[in-house]
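I had to read the description of the data format several times before I understood it. The format is easy to grasp once an entry is in front of the reader. For illustration, here is how one protein appears when written out as sequence plus structure tokens:
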Amino acid sequence: MKSRPIKWTSVQEYDCYIKMKLRFYTRDYMKKKREQREHEVLFTDLSHNDVMDIAVVDKYFFDDDIFIVNDWPIRVSDPLLAEALRCLTPRKQEVMLLSSFMEMKDREVAKLLKLAENTVSKHRRESLVVFRELYGVKL
């Protein structure tokens, strides 16, 4: 069913209709703005913790130490840990980086480095002993 266009009998009738429509549009617009203001919070009203919860902070790796194991770059953010890793022999470094940072099991590390599984386990234990002696910390 087609809607027929309204035929206005007078200019006053048309003006009255337009004014009524504008009133309704204005009322709806003001209602939406009021509801929006009730739900909005200014950034200046937020606490520091609230701002940090919604903030995005980029992390750059300028200060990280990078160790290369089998062409894989492994980033170490903690300078104390990076220094401890540098105190190890290259083979023990590889074992520690693969088992700790790449979360590989001894069997996987042994296969990758072409070592015996017992050797990998021994290197890892000896590395932890070195870490404890150097820094008095249990890792």
User: Anything to note?
Assistant: The radius of gyration is 35 Å. The chain has two domains: 7-42, 65-135. The helical segments are 11-39, 48-54, 79-86, 90-101, 106-113, 117-135. The longest strand covers residues 65-69.
